Amino acid sequence: MSAAGTTIEIEDLSLDRGRRPVLRDISARFSEGVVTAIVGPSGAGKTSLLRCINRLEEPLEGRVLLDGTDIRELDPTELRKRVGMIFQTPVLFEGGVRANLSYGLEAVDDSVLERALEVAGLGASFLERGSTALSVGQAQRVCIARALVRDPEALILDEPTSALDMKATKRIEELLGALAQSGLTIIVVTHDLDQARRIASKGVLLDEGRVVTTGTLEEVAAEWPGGVA
Amino acid sequence: MSGDALTDSGLVGVAISLALVGVAFLISMRFRLSLEKDLAVATARAVVQLSVVALAITFVFEHELLSAVVILVMLGAAAWTAGARLEGIPRGPQLAIFAISSGAIVALVVLFGAGVFDLEPRFLIPIAGMLIGNCMTAVSVAGARVRDELNDKTLEVEARLALGVRAREALNPYIRKATTTALIPVIDTTKTVGIIALPGAFTGMLIAGATPAQAARVQLIVLFMLFGAVAISGMTAALTVTRMFVGPGERIVLPQVK
Description:
The structure holds 2 protein chains of 2 kinds. Chain A is 32% helix and 27% strand. Chain A is of the alpha/beta class. Chain A has a domain at 8-91 and 152-222: P-loop containing nucleotide triphosphate hydrolases (Rossmann fold). In chain A, helix 4 packs across helix 5. The longest helix of chain A is centred in the last third of the chain and has 16 residues, at 166-181. The N and C termini of chain A lie far apart (37 Å). The relative contact order of chain A is 0.21. Chain B has helices at 10-30, 36-62, 66-85, 92-113, 121-152, 154-161, 167-192, 200-207, 212-244, and strands at residues 246-247, 251-252. In chain B, strands 1-2 form a two-stranded antiparallel ribbon. In chain B, helix 3 (66-85) packs parallel to helix 5, helix 4 runs antiparallel to helix 9 (212-244) and helix 8 packs antiparallel against helix 9. Chain B is globular, with a radius of gyration of 23 Å. The interface between A and B is medium-sized, with 25 and 18 residues.
């Protein structure tokens, strides 16, 4: 893992689903080595914005730049290796931890898999574990390790702790901080302003598909719809 | 009774077999099982339907060009039926006709083109019916299963895509499941042929006076023909349905089921 980050810029992005507007004129910048939280109430468009960054959704207008390059000019498979995505519910495929970590890769050395597990806070012994015996927190960390195996420059995470208990949540939050310190660009979607304050140094507040404000978490909290949460 | 069933005197055989239904009718009346109406309706429908089919096929046999029309009608009806099962899939009926034809019509062209069967209506129509009917079922099952898998496992599919694999690879497990489900009946029939039950063509030929060796040869042709055609149609359906849901940028655009 090289742990070299990347700059992600979003310019005037709009997204419709059917005829329904989901995002309107979104502009934001995410820097390397920084955890940025995308916050806002339910239905604000947070997840949709995240999905535009790795092209699981195609915006109607605007563009996303990865280190200055429009992501539509990149091979989507290459883009998704450079920008790893973690979902709200951990999804493990058939086979054990080893099969999950090496999914879709032609040949990968065990040392790479073990290193990813260690970075994710799981021991190298997890490599031989089955997927079904893992706790939800362990499964989520296997998902993070699976993304790290691909040597990403950024991680985008959609409410990654919403299915976890407090202890597992704390471990994931610490892990994200450590990954940002190592240089990765980290973007976390959360509806929990307190969590955003704990883990992020920058925030983007969305409401009804538009950016309300960007800045420090204090600035974001001051603009939170209905007062400070 | 060897041969009698194939002659006019076979009508006596029909009457004798009908008498067995009469016995069932009497038992139902005696024990108040209320099956009399079902027995009567089913018997009457069988007589009417088979008589009409026999007359229609006799007519077609005498006018060879009509065979093509009959096959087109069969294909249209099969595509309509399978297309209805593929609800929510863009261009479902067209996709069904393509997938059914890829197995059934290709098999017909190969078998009759190579002279395995004589190009006569009495061979062409029943074999086309068998092929189109079986391929239709495989297309319905495989196509609907892929659609349902993608709907049920959207998150899993997107988790695969998010790891940087091509959509084709991400969707492969669901294509595999759908084709396996569609092909299980024909695979099991082929594996157990002659053990669990004597198949239709074999039984029919024995009754019609063929030797067991002749009957086995024809049965094998029928089995392999169906096996190959159904497998091709099922796989074609799963692959083409999947393709309908892959959008630009290696992502999935989900089927909308009403």
